[in-house]
Design a protein that fits this description.
homodimer; 33% helix; 23 strands; globular; six-stranded mixed β-barrel
C-alpha cells in the first residue's frame, strides 16, 4: 500500500493514459475567495447538520444494529448506508485540509461502527444484514449493495488519504475482496442496477495497486447492455457501453457509469471507451443539457429526456446528476487535458451544483428547475438523501479540481484566491473570480529549468488578455489553455484579464419553452430574475427584457452573501385581466407595457429568501 | 326492470335533479356529416380491429380460462377484463343504431363467455379468479376489481338498452349484489383505487330501480379521502370529495370520480357535491387544461400537474382523460343545462378526444402532445389498452350527446346533419358543421301547443345570427342557449349562422412554454402546424406567424379525409447554424427571416401522414 501522500480525489499519479496528474489535497490552499466561503459553510454548517440527520434518519443506527450493538429494525431507504459513506468522504476531505476535533471524533466513531458491522467474510450492507441476510446479491438491479460498496470504497480512499489511518481502507478491501470472490469471469455474472462501484474500484486499485480491483471494474462495465439486469435504458442496460450514442436513462446512474468508464480509460487507454464517451458527451452537450449545465431533464425515472426535451418549470436536473457530470468531466479532463471538459466542469459547478444548496448550507434542492411560479422552496434532508451529502463531498474537495500537473508543468483549471505548492513551483493566485475579471498569479518559488504554466481561458470569455511580467502575450484564445513556458523566477507575475460582459443567450429552436426568450450570463455564472428583486407588481413570467439596452453591473455586498447583480431594461405587461381565463383571443396589443428596470441575480443564489417567481429564460422584448 | 326504451348513455328520465333528460339512442340519427364519418370508421374498422386485439392480447381467453373452457394462465394487465367490457359497450351502442350480424355474433359470444366465467356467488374478475381466487378485495387500492366491475355494469346497461336481451345485465346485477353484500355501512370499508364503479352503479340503479346500487355508489364516494386506501392524491384519497378545491392525482381516476359524483347529484341533489364539482371545474378550466381541452398534464402518475403546468412536448393529456372529461361535463350539463358544460364537452370532443385516434380508426395516441419535433407516431393497440376501446364507445355513442329534452321542449347541444325524433317533434338538421357556419333546422312534424327549441350558441362564436322562418331573432348571445318558444308547425325553419372566423389565442403568462406564442382556432376546432404542409425546409418550431395578416380558409377535399385548412403569413428563420450548439450568444438579429405561407390543419388530424414536426403554439412574429 502506497503511504506517500496520494493525489486528490482521483489519483492519476500512475495512470498510464492521463495527460494531467492530480495534485495532493494540500497542494492547493484556498484563501478568502468564492469557494472558501462555501467550504467554510460546508464545514461549519452542512457537515454538522448532516451528521444530525444521519443520526435522526437511522442511517447510523443501521450499522449499530448490524454490528449487534443495538437491537432494532432497518430504517430508511435500502441504500441508506451510502448516506453515511458520502458524509464520511466529505468529512475526510475536510480533515485533509484542517484538523477539526469534532469532525475527527465523529469520523473515528463512524469508522469503528462500520468496521464492527462488517461480516466475517467481508460483506457489508446493513439493509441485507438486518432484513435478509441470506438474500445477498439476489437483486442486483433494484437493490444497491454494489452501489453502497462503491461509496464505501470512495469514503475509505478519502479517509486513508486524509488521515494516517487505514482502518476504513481495510474494511473496504475486505469487502472488495468478498465481491471479487463472488463476481467475475467464471463466477457470478451481472452488473449493478446503480453504477458507482466501477469508478470506486478503479480508485481502490490506484490506492492499493491490486490489479483485481481494476479488472472487477472492467468486468462490471463489460457486463452492462446484455440484458443481465433487465435490459432497460433506465439502468443503462439497453446497449453495451461501447455502442452508446447518447446519454440515456437515470441520469446519475448514466453519469456515474461514464465516470467509471473514464477511470478505466485512464488506466488502460481503450480507445473504444473514449470514442463512446465522446459521442455521448457531444450528444449531451448539444441536445440534452440545460443552460445551467443541468442534466437529466425528466422527472419520470429521474432520466435524460429526448433530445431538446428541456422544460423550464418541470426540468429535473437533479443536483446529484450535475455532481456526477462534474465527476465525469474531471476524469475526461485528466485523460485528455482538453479545455472543453474543464469549461463544462466549471460551468456546472457554478450553476448546476451549488444551485442545489442554500447559502447557509442547510437547505437543498433535489431538482433544479429553471422557472418557478412562486411555489418552489428548498428542503432540509430528504427521505432519499442522496443529494445533501453529495454536495458536501463536492464542496469539501472543490479545490482539488483547480490545478493539475504533468511533465511539462502545471495546469490551472479553476480560478480562485489560492496558494499552489508543488515540488518545483509555489504560486499565489489573487482574484475576485467569478465576480471580477482579473486573476493575478505571482511566482513565489520556482525550480530551475523551463516549466509550463497553462492557464485555462474559459470558453465564455470574449477578449481575454494575458500578461507575463506586464508584457501582453499574443494569440490568446478562449476555450483553450494558454501555455506559458518559461524559466520562472520568484517574483514573476502573470495577469489574466477575463472580461465578464453580460451576455444574452438564445436556445436552439427545438428547445421550445425558450422560444422567443433569452437567458443572461456573466462570466461563468448564469443569471436569473427572481420576483423579489423587481419593481412591485412585476410578474417575471410576463415580463420581457430589452436585449438591445445596456446591462449594468452592480456589486451588492449585503445581498445573498454578496453577489454581482445585473440590471437590464424590461417591459412589464399588465396581467390583471388574466385571473379568470387560461386562454383568450388576441385582443390587446402584444407589444407595449410599462418600461421597468429588471435586476438579475446569479441562478445559484435563487430561493434563498421568501418564495417568489423566478425565470432563467425571459421573453425578449421587440 | 324497465323495459321501455331507456334513454341514451346516461338515463336521466327519472333523475330528480336533472334539468335535461336524455333521449333514447334512436331519437337522433346522424346523416352524412362529420360524426357519421367517424361512426362509420368506428364500426367498420375500429371495432373489428379491437376484437382481433382482444383475442390476441388474451383478454377474451382470460374469461375462457376462468370459465373452465380453456386451460392457461392469466394474460395481460390485471384490468384486462375492462378492455372487453369497453369494447362490448361500444359494440352495443353500434347495435342500438344498426343491426350488424358480425358485431351481434361477437357480442353474443362475449356475453355468453362472461356469464360462464362468473362465480356462483356473482363475483367476476378473471385476474383474481385465475391467479388468486382467495385474494378477492385484498388490494382495493392497486388492483382493479371494482373498476372492472364498473365497466361491466356500463357494458351491461348499454347491452340491455341496445338489444332485447338482459343476459349481461343479469350478470352485472349478480356481481353488483355480490359487491353490495361485501361493502357498505357495517360491512367492509374502502374505496376503489380507480374510480369508475360509482357512475356505473348509478346507471345500474337507473336501469333496475334498485336503490341499493345508488346507495353503494354514495358509499364508495363517501369513503374517499379518509386514508382508507393510502391517502394519496393519486387515488383522490387525500381529501374528502366535498372538500376538494382542485382536480388532483391521476386524471382519469379524478374525472371518473367526478362523473360519479355528478351522477349521484343528479339523483339526490346534494348541493355540497355540486359546490365541490363547481370549484374543481373552475380550477381545471382556469389553471390545468391545454387549449385542446386536454387534461392531466403530467406523465408522472398520469396526473394533473400544478396550476399552469402545461408543457407542449411532454404534456400527457391521456385520451381517456379527455373522454372522462366529456363524461363529467355531460352529466353536469344534464344536471344544470348550463352552456359552459356543453361548450367544453364539444371543444374536448373535437380537439382532445378524436386527436387520440387516427383517421382510419386503427392507430391511437395515449398521450396527446401539443408539439412534436418529428418523432411522435400513433400506435396500434397498447399493452395498457384503456384508450382504444374508450374511444370506440365514445364514438359509437357520440350522437347521444347532441340533444336532450325537458318539460319546456328540446335542447340541441351539438350540431351535425341529423334527424331528431321525439314524441312531439321531428326535426331535420342540415349542416356542414364544424367546417361551415350554417346550421339549418327544419320542423318536419310538431305536436300542438308551445314548445321551446333551445339552440346552443357556442362560446367561441363572434357574431351569431338566428333566424326563424327567415326573421332574425334578437338578443343572441354566445356561450348561452337561444330559447325559441313557439307553436311549431311542419315546415318551420330555423337558420343558425355561427361565423367561424380564424382566431389567434394567447395563453396566460404562467403557461410559460406558450409565452410569446399564439394558437389558432376556427369554430370549435383548434389548429396546428404540421411540417408536411409548409414550404420545403420550414421548421415549424423556429417559425413565427404574423397575427396581423389575414388568415385564409381553404377546403381541401383530398387532404386528411377532407379538412378546412387555414393559410397564414409567417416568417421562417434559418436554423442551419444550429447543428452543433444548444445555446449561443445573441448575435443574429431576432427579427427577420424569409416570409412564407404557413398552412394549418385541425389538431385532431395531425400524425396521420409521415412523421413530421408539429406545433399548436407558434411564435408570434413582431
Amino acid at each position: 500500500m502506497d503511504r506517500t501522500p496520494a493525489a486528490g480525489v482521483v489519483d492519476t499519479l500512475h495512470s498510464a493514459h492521463a495527460l494531467c496528474r492530480s495534485l495532493p489535497f494540500d497542494a492547493v490552499k484556498l484563501r478568502d475567495g468564492f469557494w472558501s466561503r462555501w467550504q467554510k459553510i460546508n464545514r461549519r454548517e452542512a457537515l454538522t447538520y448532516g451528521h444530525t440527520q444521519l443520526v435522526e434518519s437511522g442511517a447510523l443506527d443501521n450499522f449499530a444494529v448490524a454490528a449487534g450493538r443495538k437491537t432494532g429494525t432497518f430504517q430508511n431507504m435500502r441504500f441508506a448506508d451510502s448516506d453515511l459513506y458520502k458524509w464520511l468522504e466529505a468529512a475526510s476531505f475536510e480533515l485533509s485540509r484542517q484538523r477539526d476535533a469534532w469532525i475527527r471524533q465523529r469520523v473515528d466513531e463512524a469508522v469503528d461502527l462500520i468496521a464492527a458491522a462488517q461480516c466475517q467474510d467481508g460483506y457489508l450492507n446493513t439493509y441485507y444484514q438486518i432484513t435478509n441476510p441470506k438474500g445477498r446479491w439476489t437483486n442486483l438491479r433494484d437493490d444497491h449493495e454494489l452501489y453502497c460498496a462503491g461509496h464505501l470504497f470512495q469514503a475509505a480512499v478519502a479517509h486513508f488519504r486524509a488521515t494516517d489511518s487505514d482502518a476504513l481502507l481495510r474494511v473496504a478491501q475486505r469487502f472488495a475482496d468478498c465481491i471479487d470472490g463472488v463476481f467475475g469471469p467464471g463466477r457470478m455474472r451481472g452488473a449493478p442496477g446503480h453504477p458507482e462501484i466501477e469508478l470506486a474500484l478503479v480508485e481502490l486499485f490506484r490506492t492499493t495497486h491490486q490489479d483485481r480491483y481494476l479488472k472487477l471494474a472492467q468486468f462490471f462495465i463489460d457486463e452492462r447492455g446484455q440484458g443481465l439486469i433487465g435490459g432497460r435504458a433506465y439502468h443503462q442496460d439497453h446497449v453495451p457501453v461501447r455502442d452508446a450514442t447518447e446519454p440515456a436513462g437515470h441520469a446519475v446512474r448514466q453519469l456515474y457509469l461514464l465516470a467509471g468508464m473514464a477511470d478505466v480509460y485512464l488506466e488502460v487507454g481503450e480507445q473504444r471507451l473514449m470514442d463512446a464517451m465522446d459521442r455521448v458527451w457531444h450528444d449531451m452537450c448539444t441536445r440534452k443539457m440545460s443552460i445551467t449545465g443541468g442534466v437529466g431533464a425528466r422527472h419520470e425515472g429521474e432520466a435524460f429526456g429526448e433530445s431538446y426535451e428541456l422544460p423550464n418549470d418541470r426540468v429535473y436536473n437533479e443536483t446529484c446528476a450535475q455532481i456526477a457530470s462534474v465527476m465525469w468531466n474531471w476524469r475526461l479532463l485528466l485523460a485528455t487535458g482538453e479545455c472543453r471538459y474543464a469549461d463544462l466542469l466549471e460551468w456546472t459547478l457554478y450553476n448546476g451544483v451549488i444551485s442545489g444548496v442554500s447559502l447557509d448550507g442547510k437547505r437543498f434542492f433535489y431538482p433544479n428547475p429553471l422557472l418557478s411560479r412562486g411555489n418552489i422552496a428548498r428542503s432540509g434532508w430528504f427521505a432519499c438523501a442522496c443529494c445533501p451529502p453529495n454536495v458536501m463531498r463536492t464542496l469539501a474537495s472543490v479545490h482539488n479540481y483547480a490545478v493539475t500537473r504533468n511533465d511539462m508543468g502545471l495546469q490551472i483549471h479553476l480560478y480562485d484566491s489560492m496558494r499552489i505548492e508543488t515540488a518545483d513551483l509555489r504560486l499565489e493566485v489573487d482574484t475576485d473570480y467569478p465576480w471580477q475579471p482579473g486573476v493575478n498569479v505571482r511566482v513565489d518559488e520556482a525550480g530551475s529549468g523551463d516549466t509550463t504554466i497553462s492557464l485555462r481561458i474559459p470558453r465564455w470569455c470574449g477578449r481575454p488578455i494575458v500578461r507575463v511580467n506586464g508584457a501582453q502575450v499574443d494569440g490568446i484564445r478562449a476555450g483553450a489553455y494558454c501555455d506559458l513556458r518559461h524559466s520562472w523566477r520568484s517574483g514573476d507575475t502573470i495577469e489574466l484579464d477575463l472580461p465578464m460582459l453580460p451576455v444574452f443567450h438564445e436556445a436552439h429552436p427545438f428547445v421550445e419553452p425558450a422560444r422567443g426568450c433569452v437567458a443572461l450570463s456573466r462570466g461563468p455564472l448564469v443569471y436569473c430574475f427572481e420576483g423579489l428583486d423587481q419593481p412591485a407588481g412585476t410578474n417575471v413570467l410576463g415580463t420581457a427584457v430589452d436585449t438591445a439596452a445596456a446591462v449594468e453591473e452592480s456589486w451588492q455586498d449585503e445581498l445573498l452573501s454578496g453577489v454581482m447583480t445585473l440590471r437590464a431594461r424590461g417591459i412589464a405587461r399588465d396581467h390583471t385581466g388574466w385571473s379568470q381565463e387560461l386562454y383568450r383571443p388576441l385582443g390587446v396589443p402584444e407589444i407595449g407595457g410599462t418600461p421597468i428596470e429588471l435586476k438579475a441575480i446569479p441562478y445559484f443564489a435563487w430561493a434563498n429568501r421568501e418564495l417568489a417567481p423566478m425565470v432563467v429564460w425571459m421573453r425578449r422584448a421587440g
